[in-house]
Amino acid sequence: MLTRISSLIATMLLAISGVVLLSAPPANADACYTWGRTLRSGTTGADVSELQERVAGWAGYGVNMAIDGSYGPQTTQAVKNFQAAYGLSADGVAGPNTFAKIYALQDADCSPLHFSWAEVDGGCGAGGYSGGSVSATTVKTNLLRSMWRAEALRHRLGDKPIRVTSGFRSQACDRSVGGSGTGQHTYGRALDLVPVNGNSTFCTIAKGARYIGYGSIFGPGYPDHNDHVHVDIRSGRTWSAPNCGI
Ligand SMILES: [Zn+2]
Questions:
Q1: How far is the CA of 196 from the centre of ligand 1 (A)?
Q2: What percent of the chain has pLDDT over 70?
Q3: In a domain? residue 110
């Protein structure tokens, strides 16, 4: 009840003095992360990394953007493309409107709106994030970056649902499904994607993924990849989906 009253008061205040409030930095705008300043070309810091993690999927065709806390040309381009994709003024500067859109696109647990931790955690029924090739913390960081790119891909494909059939795998799980035991899934860097209800196709996913910053894409025509598209965020460019012309 108290929350509802507070929320009502906040809404009334916003209605009364909306412009002033909207131009101020958002306070506790998101349970996951809140930016406290405008970021632009030349800015450095951990808040830049937080931004990069969420917009890296918009850097452009074949660009696997560095998440390095330094707001350079790739970050500017990624922010511009993100802004354009979501109907914002595309100036490449990350201010309140850009942050508001990001807040709207993520859940309180930091996962992007249309993907969930439950979808990407340990395969083979294990759940969790341990037993991989890196620490559980690093696995989760990598998964988050993979999921934000998937969110960008989903929007790029016209907001058509995409499902993750396999994300993180422990080394034991990876081996049990025929993997090497040390592949990208064991780092949390890989997702296997499938279309939902025929809205997208394996080929539209594979083709679209080229614009999202995935270093690897394996889809239809690549051995054992006719029923999913594997994408991962490793560096380099290893793309193969011969049935899709890739
Ligand atoms: Zn895979």
A1: 17
A2: 88
A3: no
From 155, 185, 225, 230, active-site residue: 225
Q: Are residues 163 and 209 in the same domain?
A: yes
Question: From CA 181, how far away is CA 215, in angstroms rounded?
Answer: 20
What is the separation of C-alpha 148 from the centre of its chain, rounded to a whole number of angstroms? 0
Give distance in angstroms: CA of 166 to centre of ligand 1: 7
Distance, C-alpha 152 to centroid of its chain: 6
Per residue in 89-132, pLDDT (tens digit) is: 999 999 999 999 999 999 989 999 999 999 999 999 999 999 99
CB 116 within 8 A of CB 89: no
pLDDT at 11 over 70: no
Q: Note the pLDDT tens digit of each residue in 49-76.
A: 999 999 999 999 999 999 999 999 999 9
Residue 207, domain CATH: 3.30.1380.10
At residue 195, the 3 state secondary structure works out as strand
Give domain status of residue 145, yes or no. yes
In a domain, 189, yes or no: yes
Annotation marks residue 155 as catalytic: no
